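Translate structure to sequence.
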């Protein structure tokens, strides 16, 4: 029997919030009257407001967050050709921003609780070519900032944060934005605070701020002299006007998001295998994203089935960050990106996913058997024998074949890929690296 959708109009993830239209028109009219349409007084006012919200000394507004990430890398001294450690569970703009300016994103596993970069794995990926660490505050929850700060300080590396989701959130009572060498916010139309399109680099380091301001304007410094290489990353006055109007509602929007998040938690409480991903306890969160996780074994239903039902009723939920970045075309066939599972799969394996067979104890093999068998009916074709390679330091053949890394230890290659909880990987065995054993293959986040 045909049933009408519960909602007549489609409900999109990230539908833009529109502020006071009259105030927006007034600000844009003022910019038109001044005939100053880019990098003018509205942009400077937005920078002051963003810096105040993040409690940082400096904010550098840009045309988008992707280019702000590039400015952050350049302004902190990361040289072309260097490696930057990034989580594989993030929007592809994060590694793209690095790759586009000649940096190599080195993909790292994630911490299951925060969905942010795993500091223990990140430490194993640090090598002679490492130029920086870039953490991502996935779904607005701060990644392990303290551990990453200690790691970066110990190795003398710049620490950057992609805080596109985290404007208004806090860590240890301190607003996101002032951690590391620099952080980057996004004001894309899908963010709860938007400027049509835009971003901002925030930092407490005056040298980083000065370099970033020059680089966003073709390398032109305050005295109108070209002092460095640069690009055109300037924000328009119209975008700044939209951003200012949006910021006037930041507290009201966070309150509304928090209320919605609580309603989902209450409504789904007690359902077996269904959970709502939480934020950092005791901290302020913008609750920009609502993520529901479904464990097929406990819930008796696959996440894709739930997604299909929601879509039928015009609730357009999305599976975020799937596949993970190391599985995407620009990186899946590039061994220099050191994807989380380092043994490169032959091209005839499904979707270019990665697969490896590390040495494991018989107990570990037994613990992963059930999850491995549930990964799907396909079976990989016979694998061709890899050519022997030579390590860079000893010149002797290295075990296992493949490509030599830049002095990175073999134990930096994780025995398991990103958890199925966040990537839905269909490798032949379990992807869980938690001590509690494998997770079901169907546990994938659905953002609603």
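Result:
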């Amino acid at each position: 029997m045909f049933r009408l959708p519960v909602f007549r109009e489609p409900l999109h993830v990230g539908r833009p919030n529109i502020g006071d239209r009259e105030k927006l028109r007034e600000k844009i009219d003022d910019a038109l009257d001044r005939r100053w349409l880019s990098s003018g007084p509205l942009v400077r006012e937005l920078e002051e407001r963003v810096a105040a919200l993040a409690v940082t000394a400096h904010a550098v507004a840009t045309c988008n967050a992707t280019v702000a990430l590039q400015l952050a890398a350049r302004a902190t001294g990361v040289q072309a050709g260097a490696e930057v450690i990034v989580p594989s569970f993030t929007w592809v703009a994060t590694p793209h921003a690095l790759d586009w300016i000649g940096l190599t994103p080195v993909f790292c596993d994630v911490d299951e609780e925060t969905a942010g970069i795993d500091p223990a794995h990140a430490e194993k990926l640090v090598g002679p070519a490492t130029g920086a660490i870039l953490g991502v505050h996935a779904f607005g929850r701060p990644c392990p900032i303290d551990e990453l700060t200690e790691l970066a300080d110990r190795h003398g590396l710049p620490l950057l944060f992609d805080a596109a989701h985290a404007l208004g959130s806090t860590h240890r009572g301190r607003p996101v934005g002032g951690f590391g060498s620099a952080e980057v916010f996004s004001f894309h139309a899908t963010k709860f605070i938007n400027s049509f399109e835009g971003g901002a680099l925030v930092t407490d380091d005056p040298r980083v701020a000065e370099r970033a301001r020059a680089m966003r304007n073709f390398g032109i410094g305050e005295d109108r002299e070209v002092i460095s290489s640069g690009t055109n990353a300037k924000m328009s006055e119209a975008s700044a006007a939209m951003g200012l109007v949006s910021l006037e509602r930041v507290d009201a929007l966070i309150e509304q998001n928090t209320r919605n998040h609580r309603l989902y938690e209450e409504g789904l409480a007690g359902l077996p295998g269904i959970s709502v991903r939480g934020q950092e306890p005791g901290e302020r969160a913008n609750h920009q994203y609502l993520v529901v996780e479904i464990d097929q074994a406990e819930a008796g239903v696959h996440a894709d089935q739930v997604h299909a039902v929601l879509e039928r009723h015009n609730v357009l939920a999305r599976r975020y960050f799937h596949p993970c970045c190391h599985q995407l075309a620009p990186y899946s066939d590039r061994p220099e990106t050191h994807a989380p599972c380092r043994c490169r799969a032959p091209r005839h394996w499904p979707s270019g996913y990665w697969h490896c067979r590390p040495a494991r104890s018989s107990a570990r093999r037994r613990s992963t058997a059930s999850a491995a068998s549930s990964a799907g009916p396909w079976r990989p074709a016979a694998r061709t024998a890899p050519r022997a390679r030579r390590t860079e330091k000893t010149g002797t053949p290295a075990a296992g074949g493949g490509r030599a890394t830049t002095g990175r230890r073999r134990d930096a290659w994780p025995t398991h890929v990103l958890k199925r909880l966040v990537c839905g990987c269909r490798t032949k065995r379990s992807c869980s690296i938690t001590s509690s054993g494998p997770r079901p293959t169907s546990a994938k986040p659905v953002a609603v």
